[in-house]
């Protein structure tokens, strides 16, 4: 969509100036606003590797670009859980041999054997978090822990709602709202899903992913579907919002650094992955992006703000989150049709 | 397009070299324009690969999907598909309105510039182009800041007492229209300026001598002479507006697709349906070609008379 390809070149200038030999390059394909520049600079300083980064704003946009011919020009990308599975099935990922990653043992137990990449053959954890929504408490003071805020909003919030422009997460949240399974092929359930989102859309102001934080800060939206860390940033930037843990459920996700097939600098990609498995490095990402790392020993390195952030600590009453499922081809076509009908 | 004088090719000295001189431009048109369009044409008749890409099997399913509605599950009796017609219609009236507004504002502007003393004209043209040194994306985002509910425009309107509560402008058709109008205005001004600049103002005096009122001078003399510039300006505004996706996306809140956003989603979005995206692009291209063809014919007929 908007912030397209913001190419950042992190030349290891200090090294070039010092006359040291460049240790080659690393080409990263990453989400927007998701890694601190200082961390990339430090990686360059420590290894002498020159880093370049392009950014994307949705898993699907990244997949489309890679399939459109840029596979082979990047070393690593950072897809979400379901997208790792899709890319693996498409044969777009390279396998990390056993023992190649020195710091693999740093991965937290619960993230070592995940459904989307059993045994972590292609990926390492980057950050994980949840997708729900935040509500402006100056506009609406009552109970917000229900998906009604998005799909059946009270009058005070009508016309003041921003939703993420991501099909997977929005339709997954709508399915949780209706209590129907994801990747359902049941006609009645899908009709209900389509009707629900279409009726709710009348009350939505916009679909915006990369502006999801800004619309809450500026007050353009009083309810914003948002990723928890992005919501925390909005709160820190002054939005009087509270992040909701709806009783119907919400989405959880994990972004992962994957080794891409035909990586031009495979060795440097492995070095970068090892670098991100060091607690002090990945903690820096967490402190920046306000999400949770999947690496042991990170917690003591987090800022106090992050440790106590309500976006990080669901109340005991909150249900567990749900991962977005990968549907088979025929079922996916039905969800695509629902999305097109929603946007017409 | 605007008033290009057809070269009569009288300089025989260049005749033998003509082919070689033409080669670079034909090669770049062929390679960067015709070849990609041809590729899209081929893609639109191929089978969709799951999650982006194409399978090299002939299929009409993209066009079938565009024109026929077989229900959510694809097993109902086919009816006319209104979804995409609605998207095309929305794009067409937005682009048409933007063209009319650009003409209303652009014509007097171009006239004003062309009637300045010649040494200040370049300064006026320079002023017109200044905003376009900034990337379109940045300008569109800035527009969003200006018109938001608690943005400067609403605050100013409230300060002067014109309104009591902010008017919702952002995420509406109005905002999309504003974005289109603002983005493409110079494409209207510049060709009209080029036409007016060559206009012989002695004709006005001659008409006045014959007691023609001002509106009649404008209608019977000025407009027919500068018509090519006006038409070129209209085409240059209408065609890109038709395929715009930044304005509907950023200013319209991405709620109601225009053609550009529909196509974009087929390639970049979750649907990943490249053949369908190509088919939509082909339908759009066909409509634009038909419009241009009708114009070219009427133009040819007019110049015969």
Description:
The complex is a heterodimer of chains A (344) and B (305). With 344 residues, chain A is α/β, with parallel strands linked by helices. Chain A contains 13 helices and 10 strands. Chain A is globular. Residues 1-22 of chain A have low confidence and may be disordered. Chain B is 68% helix and 4% strand. Chain B has 12 helices and 4 strands. In chain B, strand 1 and strand 2 (54-58) form a beta hairpin. In chain B, helix 1 crosses helix 12. The model of chain B is unreliable at 1-5 (pLDDT under 50). Chain A binds chain B through residues 1-2, 4, 58, 60-61, 63-65, 67-68, 86, 90, 159, 162, 165-168, 187, 190-191, 194, 201, 204-208, 218-220, 329, 332, 334-341, 343-344, and chain B through 50-53, 72-73, 83-84, 86-87, 137, 141, 148-150, 168, 170-171, 246, 249-250, 253-257, 261-262, 264-265, 267-273.
Low-confidence stretches of chain A: 1-22
Multimeric organization? heterodimer
CATH class of one domain in chain B: Mainly Alpha
Side by side, the strands of the main sheet of chain B go 1-2
CATH architecture label of the largest domain in chain A? 3-Layer(aba) Sandwich
Instruction: Classify the fold: give the CATH topology of the largest domain in chain A.
Output: D-Maltodextrin-Binding Protein, domain 2
Query: Based on the structure given, which CATH architecture of one domain in chain B is correct?
Result: Orthogonal Bundle
N- to C-terminal distance of chain A: 17 Å
CATH superfamily of one domain in chain B: MetI-like
The biggest beta sheet of chain A reads: 10 strands, mixed
The helix content of chain B, as a percent range, equals 55-70%
First-last Cα distance of chain B: 21 Å
Count the domains of chain A: 2
Label the structural class of chain A.
alpha/beta
């Amino acid at each position: 969509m908007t912030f397209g390809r913001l190419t950042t070149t992190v030349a290891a200038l200090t090294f070039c100036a010092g006359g040291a030999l460049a240790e080659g390059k690393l080409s990263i394909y990453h989400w927007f606003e998701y890694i601190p520049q200082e961390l990339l600079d430090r990686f360059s300083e420590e290894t002498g590797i020159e880093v370049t980064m392009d950014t994307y704003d949705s898993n699907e946009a990244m997949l489309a670009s890679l399939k459109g011919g840029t596979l082979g020009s990047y070393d690593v990308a950072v897809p979400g859980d379901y997208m790792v599975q899709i890319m693996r099935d498409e044969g777009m990922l390279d396998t990390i041999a056993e023992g190649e990653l020195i710091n693999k043992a740093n991965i937290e137990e619960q993230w070592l054997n995940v459904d989307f990449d059993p045994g972590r053959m292609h990926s390492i954890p980057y950050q994980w978090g949840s997708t729900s929504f935040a509500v402006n408490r100056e506009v609406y003071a009552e109970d917000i822990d229900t998906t009604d805020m998005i799909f059946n909003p009270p009058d005070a919030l009508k016309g003041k709602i921003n939703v993420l422009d991501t099909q997977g997460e929005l339709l997954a949240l709508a399915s949780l709202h209706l209590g129907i399974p994801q990747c359902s092929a049941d006609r009645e359930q899908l009709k209900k899903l389509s009707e629900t989102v279409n009726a709710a859309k009348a009350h939505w102001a916009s679909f915006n992913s990369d502006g999801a934080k800004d619309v809450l800060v500026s007050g353009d939206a009083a309810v914003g579907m948002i990723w928890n860390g992005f919501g925390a940033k909005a709160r820190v930037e002054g939005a009087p919002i509270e992040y909701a843990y709806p009783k119907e459920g919400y989405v959880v996700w994990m972004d992962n650094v994957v080794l891409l097939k035909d990586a031009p600098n495979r060795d440097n990609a492995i070095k970068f992955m090892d670098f991100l498995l060091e607690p002090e490095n990945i903690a820096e990402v967490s402190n920046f992006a306000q999400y949770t790392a999947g690496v042991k020993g990170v917690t003591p390195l987090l800022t106090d703000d992050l440790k106590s952030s309500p976006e990080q600590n669901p109340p005991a009453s909150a249900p567990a989150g749900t991962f977005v499922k990968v549907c088979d081809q025929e079922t996916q076509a039905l969800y695509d049709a629902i999305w097109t009908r929603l946007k017409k | 397009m605007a008033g290009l004088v057809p070269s009569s090719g009288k300089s025989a000295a260049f005749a033998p070299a003509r082919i070689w001189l033409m080669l670079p431009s034909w090669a770049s048109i062929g390679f960067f324009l015709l070849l990609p369009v041809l590729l899209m044409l081929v893609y639109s008749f191929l089978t969709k690969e799951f999650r982006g890409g194409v399978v090299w099997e002939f299929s009409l399913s993209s066009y079938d999907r565009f024109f026929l509605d077989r229900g959510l599950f694809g097993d109902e009796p086919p009816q006319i598909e209104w979804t995409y017609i609605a998207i095309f219609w929305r794009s067409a009236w937005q682009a048409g309105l933007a063209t009319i507004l650009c003409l209303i504002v652009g014509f007097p502007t171009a006239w004003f510039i062309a009637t300045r003393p010649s040494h200040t004209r370049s300064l006026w043209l320079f002023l017109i182009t200044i905003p376009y040194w900034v990337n379109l994306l940045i300008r569109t985002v800035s527009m969003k800041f200006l018109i938001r509910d608690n943005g400067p425009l609403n605050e100013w309107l409230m300060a002067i007492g014109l309104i009591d509560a902010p008017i919702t402008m952002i995420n509406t058709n109005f905002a999309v229209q504003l974005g289109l109008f603002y983005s493409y205005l110079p494409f209207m001004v510049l060709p009209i300026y080029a036409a007016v600049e060559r206009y012989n103002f002695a004709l006005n005096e001659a008409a006045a001598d014959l007691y023609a009122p001002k509106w009649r001078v404008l209608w019977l003399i000025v407009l027919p002479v500068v018509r090519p510039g006006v038409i070129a300006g209209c085409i240059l505004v209408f065609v890109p507006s038709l395929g715009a996706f930044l304005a509907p996306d950023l200013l319209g809140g991405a709620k109601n697709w225009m053609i550009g956003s529909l196509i974009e989603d087929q390639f970049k979005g979750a649907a990943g349906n490249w053949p369908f995206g190509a088919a939509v692009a082909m339908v759009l291209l066909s409509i634009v070609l038909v419009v241009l063809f009708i114009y070219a014919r009427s133009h040819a007929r007019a110049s015969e008379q």
